[in-house]
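Order emerges. For instance:

***
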Amino acid sequence: MKHFYRSSLALLLAAVCLFSIAGTAFAAELHISSATQAEGTQEAGGTQEGTAEGEAEQAQPSADTQNNAAPRSAVSRSSGQAEVTGITAVVGGSRIDLTTTALDDGADITELILQITQPVTIPAPKADDSQPALEFKRDNFQKQGTSTVTISDIQEDAQAGTVGYTVTVTGVRYAEKKIDVCAFELSYQDTAGGTFKQEFSVDIVTNLTVGSYSLSSARFYSDASTTVSKVTYRRNYYAFKVTIEDSALTKAEFTALDPDHFSIRINSDFITYNSVKIEDIRNWSNNGVSYTVVFSGVRYDGTTNRMLLDVDYNDPFYPVRSFDQVVEGCELDTRKNNDDDDDDDDSSSSKPDIPPPTPNIIISSFDYGGGNVTAARDFSLTVRFTNTSDKLPIDNIVMKATVPEAFTLKGSSNTFYVEKMSRKETVEKTIQFSVKPNAEPISHAIKFDFTFESVISEERKQLSSAEEISIPVAQMDRFTLNPVEVPAEIYVGEDQSFEVTFVNKGKTEVYNVTATISGNISQPGQSQFIGNLESGKEESADFLLGAMEEGLIQGEVLITYEDANMNVLEARAPFQANAIMMQMPPMDDMDVMNPDDMLVEEPAWYQKIPVWGWMAGGVVALILLAFIAKVIRAHRDRKLLEEDDEDL
């Protein structure tokens, strides 16, 4: 019996060994088959994204995609003010400080380096901001071709409470254009997660000269065309005309300065007059201008024959044109007391007693800060008005301002009172205005009406006058080009389309919007004309991106447009991508393998067991059969022995 148990145990162990070998072979075959299938799927279906690694790459955006993502719409606000503390131009390898040294007209600037300091209350630029934007607001600095903008050297001064950084603009062209300031708008992604945007300006040195000017003629007229060779004192004349020749500016530039608002002053002991204007503007000499200043309703008093004349163009670039000239043919009054001399030999004693000229009030000058006033902002207007009479004082003066629809008064009414003004006295009044957000970007007229009194020939008279000035309004340019999003990688020889979007966030329509693309791409110079873009509207342009060879692709989208004042402006957005060659499978593999058309039948499990597995199983089966045969034979022999024992 014990022999039977030992035999059964051996049989059981043999069975376990057999099944272990078979199971191991089967598992190994399944593993090899699965690996082969996964490898084939990855090679044949290069565009499929079924692996865990591919899914992870899809779930995690690339660094390029993150950098090209549109910035948040929040705009950083602060109570502080950022300012330019240095401006340097790199020209031909030389560094030039533009606050002390002038550039040559037409100079090509390799790098324009701007040092900016701002309080810590304004969020600093992000250190990894790859898409700051800078737009010049005057056309004396112009970005060229593939000009780039970078921000670097961001440093905080905790003790001073400021942050400083460097803005570098490459590829800039400079033209003097009679402008001595560099004005620009800078925007960047800040550390607070929004977008900081602010306009800057910094004074620079120029090589410009103001030019020469001279007096061509100064004559009295008895009528519109007749000159007076002998001018008698205490006489009234039709006009006094002064012709000036100025080589500093052309006729077109002169008229662009608006001659109607020049400040013109002449000494009252020479003449008094009722009105003054500029006429007969013409070209003169080599790109100069000639014009005539006409004083109408003139009285020559005879106190002096020396004319002191100042013509102020009201432009910071041009100083006042001043003249000190003796006018020939003017008779001087040599009497010590013109009013009381009763000398019968004086031929003038028989002349009628003519009352002095009626006093008048004119606006001699005004100041609103120069340039344009900006919509949705406040400005101060300082008006200086003068009693033109050097004989009579005036009193009980009321000035009333008629404000255009674009402006509103702040902190006062539109009426101002002055008790009295002496002879030739000038009074100054400052008025606070606010420009409405939707103000039209044109020059808006403010009318001033004066009522006053004066005693003339022992009689009090009510008098009045009216003056008008113009204030130009500019709408803030808020045309925005969104960051360009392109694929991180493209295949050489394949063009991919992408879209750029831009928004007119300003209050006025922009005109002639045109989108172009440049760079080392297969189809540079693509252009689309969009037309006009209304306020608050978004538009887009489509381009093709392709490459002819491997490597880094760098390009730029340029949007040009015109504002309401027909100034041509630009918006730029750079982009980049990598061009790679498409990997093609070997020709033999392409002949054998066609995953789209060929379906491989899955083999049965027993077909996956290798030959050595079957051989091992066969050996174990032979051993098992031999063992079973031996057990059966032993059992039969034992049974025969037992039967023989019973017979005995």
Summary: The first strand starts at residue 83 and ends at 91. Residues 2-44 form the longest helix (43 residues).
